[in-house]
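Q: UPF0145 protein HND93_00220, please. Structure only.
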Amino acid sequence: MIITTTDSVEGRRVVEYLGVVTGEAIIGVNIFRDMFSGIRDIIGGRAGGYQNALRDAREAAFTDMQDMAHSRGADAIVAVDVDYEVLGKENGMLMVSVNGTAVRLG
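A: Structure for UPF0145 protein HND93_00220:
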């Protein structure tokens, strides 16, 4: 399935709009990841644990969105937007949400 942030697919014509499709994933931030991330902040470098968790959440959100589009018979998802939000009283959760418009191409 073609997924793009643009509102069209180059060389293809949108013949039918099938509606907005979405995907969400929420991940918890655990104390061990926080601890090692804090060490990275002090000595410098990338927080690999957070990056991997964020990547996994983003991939899960995209998979959910694709599944919804596929169930509607879409060939592509256009105008995709990716958002990240911190949730929870102690900012202990991270939400990744994606949305776009499912379309059928000609």
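A: Brief note, in case it's useful. Helices lie at 31-43, 48-71.
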